[in-house]
Amino acid sequence: MARPPAQGRVPDHEHLQHRPGPAEPRVIAIGLGIFGLTFTNIAIALLITAIPPILSQAYLAVDQVDPDMVRSARGMGLTPAQVLFKVELPLALPLLFTGIRIAVVYVISSATLATVAGGGGLGDIVLGQARYGLKGVIAAALWVAALALAADGLLALLQRVLVPKGLRAARG
């Protein structure tokens, strides 16, 4: 449940920010020993990449729900589960979508590393300058960026459709 921040104190959520690092190649390397050169180890590594931004934004979203709304819902007799599903999550929807959008962009951009585990795709070109030349590498990197931006744009449209109009206006 959401707890109000101490009076006059802005909540600090910097510790929740996911900083992408070299974890994905390590997860792929560990997965090679368990699953071999398969789609499974690549999918697990990409899933692990997606989890931190989704969880951190979900926590932040529910934590920033107006405490007065939560108190009002409790005062009307809603159970904790009802408060979560009928008050906190609907009000947190814009930030929840932000976490999903961040995760999708991370996954698309990290998927180029799948070539290290035999996954192929645009990663073959991005990591294969000797074979494709600098122009090929730049073109493939631009396609990866365009794919990530297109996916983010589609999720932004979906967010616009699913988030109630009143919450869109309140959040910007």
Automatic annotation (TrEMBL):
PANTHER family with a match to the protein in the record: GLYCINE BETAINE/L-PROLINE TRANSPORT SYSTEM PERMEASE PROTEIN PROW (PTHR30177), OSMOPROTECTANT IMPORT PERMEASE PROTEIN OSMW (PTHR30177:SF4)
Residue stretches making up the ABC transmembrane type-1 domain: 1-155
Top-rank taxon, per record: Bacteria
InterPro entries cross-referenced by the UniProt entry: ABC_transp_perm/SBD, MetI-like, MetI-like_sf
Membrane topology: Multi-pass membrane protein
Organism annotation: Streptomyces axinellae
Family the entry assigns: Belongs to the binding-protein-dependent transport system permease family.
Disordered: annotated span: 1-21
Name of one Pfam family that matches: BPD_transp_1
Transmembrane spans: 27-51, 91-117, 137-158
Name of the protein this chain belongs to: ABC transmembrane type-1 domain-containing protein
Keyword annotations from UniProtKB, A to Z: Membrane, Transmembrane, Transmembrane helix, Transport
Main location class: membrane
Subcellular location: Cell membrane; Membrane
